[in-house]
DNA sequence: CATAACCGGGG
DNA sequence: GTGTACGGTTATG
């Protein structure tokens, strides 16, 4: 039993060190392995028997004697079949020595049956035929997976980053490439001679290819590699007639593979639906739902750190943005001397200060390498389990990308027929519970939550897909949960920062990812093979019951419930309670929950402002204020307002209402005295229209950013350029020089010839519209404190300091309020079915 | 003014 | 082969 389930999770072939697999439909496969002991690379050329699944043999009847049972011996041009057992639409494994003969035989039979010609197997319905990409056919048939016994740090990884004159490969050129070699050294390649010369650029691309071939990495990485660098490179190479021999085998050139995300830029050139009508198009401006492609090469895995970043932020939701600089800074990967240059000025700076651009580009590849190691371990670990290429696991969704291949492999290994995708029966998916019990300020706040609630419920109540008759999904979840504990223990046992620790942490992260996607898998009707919305609804129903139960039980123990969402609850305890009392109620309630459902004490806070569902501020007993939800963390909020909000919240949560008033007054006065620098009131925007486009619509509607450009004599700009704009006096639009990164308020060196720090302030015009920003302060920022004050106190706190009212309000006795909602606000994500209300605490 | 479409990133 | 969300802005009726 254990062995079988281990095979479901890990495959069964022990071959170590596979770093890349390339297979062709004709039945040839190349496997590159890095020998863990010697670091040497070995290449195996193999043949395999391509296979696919069919619902019936009728389309192969025309083969006559060439169609034989799998058990019969070899015969020339044979096509074999193996009948799988049990129910399931896809019940025949068909194999041949060449996958093309296989598909043409089926197409021929199906065309005859349907009376119309067929081009591709995908023209047949998925319940009739199922084919996987050749690499996956090979991995499933062989039981092999990537990276067995190989630590992440044994991979030979190379990063490269293009610096270009702009974003559009039709018109812009590559003038510099930074490379980071597998040994960690960096190198810069630059265009020699005339930058506007095709030959000079072609020569640069040739040198890039030569360096990659010389270093021969297993993996090529960069941030937005598939979204920018590869499609840009491919387009330029095509224009210049340079062969891109980036792979380890086969014809030079990048190949394309279909993908959900990825190239928004390179796909355009060969997307049939694109008519190129959009003027001033850049990479991001897609006019239709074109199918995206990604590039792939034999022998190397092309890894985009953006995918790892998105995957991380999907659960963590703590990143300030997804750009390389912001993420690197967030994770502490950016050094203190990190060179920053605004994107639009890189080429310009290169002409006057090339050394700065070299530093910048090298910092980019170093950060991309750091990011790839920090966040890429999960995909690396997934590649040890799932029968897919590493590069595909890096950008795949966990449900269709990881669980589906695991399930397919398990069923075939067991010789069991595979169900086809099934459309839903119309039952809608009911979601989690969300309760808002109180708004305003509460003190002595505790957060308790259930770790991995949904997988725990699936395990506890044995809820799996109805059609998964082998119980593979639950078996995988069970094993992943158990083995994850083991991986976590090993990670803890290893030296911090060591390769072993990194590998075990990555494994643990990957396992968590898969476990948590098991529930999503159930609900993805039409997308996943075994989707079962009834099972998914059963999970959420138990989840709502558990949340309701724990809320009731907590309330019965004398706490005040604040907000509960899916698997966690915030509540406030009586002032006399100690932390031990807080922990005691949590464990008392935990004991009442089902065995696998573990309620945990997750944190304690001095105070909380509950604003709206999923929008709150927390003041830890020590440490900085925590803001959650869009109301408190808006990416484009003006810095002066954010700053005010933080100061006001800190006072508010300390019960200091006069302090809130003071924060407000000082901000208003600072605006009026113009002691707030202009960049603090400016907002960052992106220009999405070309100047000609804007001028065409300008009479109908004026837009601040473009007005700011025009008013500052900027009549030309590129789409996507980021600027800082503000409202200036007299209805004018103000424009500020953009610092190199969103977060950086450091001087923007290249804008200031001579680099005098004081120059910036002396240049600050300070001509912003004070009244506009005062109103903004009151209406959008102060408004977020409304729940915490009585209407009278709110009016007094945010009374205009310049126009003293008749009553000088006395705030010294004012206290923040907490309003316990009579009817707690009940929400349910995607709720369509009748709502069972959770009993409210007494 | 409401709803639909589109964006996130890269130089 | 399939797909990630979701909150915010801009385009359009």
TrEMBL record:
Residues 742-751 have a biased composition (Acidic residues). Its EC number is 2.7.7.7. Residues 752-768 have a biased composition (Basic and acidic residues). GO terms for molecular function: DNA binding; DNA-directed DNA polymerase activity; nucleotide binding. It catalyses: DNA(n) + a 2'-deoxyribonucleoside 5'-triphosphate = DNA(n+1) + diphosphate. Keywords: DNA-binding, DNA-directed DNA polymerase, Nucleotidyltransferase, Transferase. Residues 199-307 form the DNA-directed DNA polymerase family B exonuclease domain. This is DNA-directed DNA polymerase. It comes from Chondromyces crocatus. The lineage of its organism: Bacteria, Pseudomonadati, Myxococcota, Polyangia, Polyangiales. The gene is polB.
């Amino acid at each position: 039993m254990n062995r079988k389930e281990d095979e479901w999770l890990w495959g069964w072939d022990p071959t170590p060190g596979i770093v890349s697999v390339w297979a062709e439909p004709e039945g040839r496969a190349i496997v590159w392995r890095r020998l863990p002991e010697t670091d040497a690379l070995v290449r195996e050329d193999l043949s395999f028997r391509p296979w696919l699944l069919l619902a019936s043999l009728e389309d192969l009847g025309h083969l006559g004697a060439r169609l034989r049972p799998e058990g019969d011996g070899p015969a020339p041009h044979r096509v074999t079949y193996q009948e799988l057992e049990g129910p399931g639409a896809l019940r025949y494994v068909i194999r041949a020595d060449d996958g093309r003969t296989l598909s043409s035989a089926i197409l021929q039979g199906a065309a005859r049956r349907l009376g119309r010609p067929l081009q591709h197997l995908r023209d047949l319905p998925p319940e009739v035929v199922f084919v996987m990409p050749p690499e996956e056919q090979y991995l499933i048939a062989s039981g092999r997976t990537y990276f067995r016994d190989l630590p992440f740090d044994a991979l030979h990884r190379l990063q490269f980053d293009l610096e270009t004159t702009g974003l559009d490969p039709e018109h812009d050129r590559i003038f510099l490439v930074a490379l980071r070699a597998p040994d960690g050294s960096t190198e810069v390649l630059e265009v020699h001679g005339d930058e506007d010369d095709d030959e000079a650029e072609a020569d640069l691309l040739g040198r890039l290819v030569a360096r990659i071939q010389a270093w021969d990495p297993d993996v090529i990485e960069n941030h937005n590699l598939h979204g920018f660098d590869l499609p840009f490179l491919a387009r330029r190479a095509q224009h210049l007639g340079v062969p891109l021999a980036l792979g380890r085998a086969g014809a030079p050139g990048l190949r394309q593979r279909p993908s959900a995300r990825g190239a928004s830029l390179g796909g355009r050139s060969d997307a049939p639906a694109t008519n190129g009508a959009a003027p001033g198009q850049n990479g991001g401006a897609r006019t239709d739902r074109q199918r995206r492609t990604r590039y792939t090469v034999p022998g190397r895995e092309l890894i985009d750190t953006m995918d790892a970043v998105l995957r991380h932020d999907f659960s963590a939701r703590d990143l300030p943005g997804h750009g390389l600089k912001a993420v690197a800074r967030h994770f502490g990967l950016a050094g203190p001397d990190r060179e920053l240059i605004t994107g639009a000025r890189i080429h310009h700076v290169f002409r006057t200060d090339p050394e700065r651009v070299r530093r910048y580009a090298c910092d980019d590849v170093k950060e991309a390498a750091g990011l790839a190691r920090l966040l890429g371990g999960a995909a690396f670990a997934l590649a040890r389990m799932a029968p897919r290429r590493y590069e595909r696991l890096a950008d795949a969704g966990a449900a269709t990308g990881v669980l589906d291949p695991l399930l397919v492999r398990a069923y075939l290994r067991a010789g069991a027929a595979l169900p086809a995708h099934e459309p839903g029966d119309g039952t809608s998916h009911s979601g989690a519970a969300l309760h808002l019990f109180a708004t305003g300020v509460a003190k002595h706040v505790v957060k308790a939550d259930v770790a991995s609630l949904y997988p725990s419920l699936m395990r506890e109540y044995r809820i799996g897909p109805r059609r998964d008759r082998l119980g593979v999904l639950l078996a995988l979840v069970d094993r992943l949960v158990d083995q994850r504990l083991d991986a976590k223990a090993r990670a803890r046992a290893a030296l911090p920062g060591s390769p072993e620790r990194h590998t075990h942490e990555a494994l643990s992260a990957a396992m968590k990812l898969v476990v948590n996607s098991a529930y999503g898998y159930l609900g993805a009707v039409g997308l996943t093979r075994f989707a079962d919305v009834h099972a998914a609804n059963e999970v959420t129903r138990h989840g709502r019951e558990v949340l309701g139960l724990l809320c009731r039980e907590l309330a019965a123990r004398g706490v005040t419930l604040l907000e509960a969402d899916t698997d966690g609850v915030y509540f406030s305890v009586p002032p006399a309670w100690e932390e031990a009392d807080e922990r005691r109620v949590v464990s008392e309630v935990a004991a009442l929950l089902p065995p696998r459902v573990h309620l945990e004490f997750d944190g304690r806070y001095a105070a909380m402002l509950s604003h709206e569902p999923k929008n709150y501020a927390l003041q830890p007993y020590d440490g900085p204020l925590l803001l959650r939800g869009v109301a408190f963390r808006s990416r484009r909020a003006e810095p002066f307002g954010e700053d005010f909000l933080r100061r006001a919240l800190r006072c508010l949560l300390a019960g200091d209402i006069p302090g809130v008033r003071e924060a407000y007054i000082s901000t208003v006065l600072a605006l009026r005295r113009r002691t707030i620098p202009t960049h603090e009131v400016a907002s960052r925007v992106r220009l999405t229209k070309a100047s000609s486009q804007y001028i065409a619509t300008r009479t109908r509607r004026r837009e601040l950013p473009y007005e700011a450009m025009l008013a500052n004599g900027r009549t030309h700009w590129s789409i996507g350029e980021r600027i800082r704009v503000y409202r200036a006096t007299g209805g004018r639009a103000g424009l500020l020089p953009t610092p190199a990164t969103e977060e950086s308020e450091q001087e923007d060196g290249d804008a200031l010839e001579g680099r005098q720090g004081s120059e910036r302030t002396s240049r600050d015009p300070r001509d912003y519209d004070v009244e506009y920003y005062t109103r903004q302060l009151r209406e959008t920022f102060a408004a977020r404190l409304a729940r915490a004050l009585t209407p009278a106190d709110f009016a007094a706190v945010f009374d205009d300091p310049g126009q003293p009212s008749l009553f000088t309000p006395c705030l010294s006795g004012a206290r923040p309020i907490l309003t316990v909602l009579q009817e707690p606000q009940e929400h349910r994500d995607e709720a369509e079915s009748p709502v069972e209300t959770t009993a409210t605490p007494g």
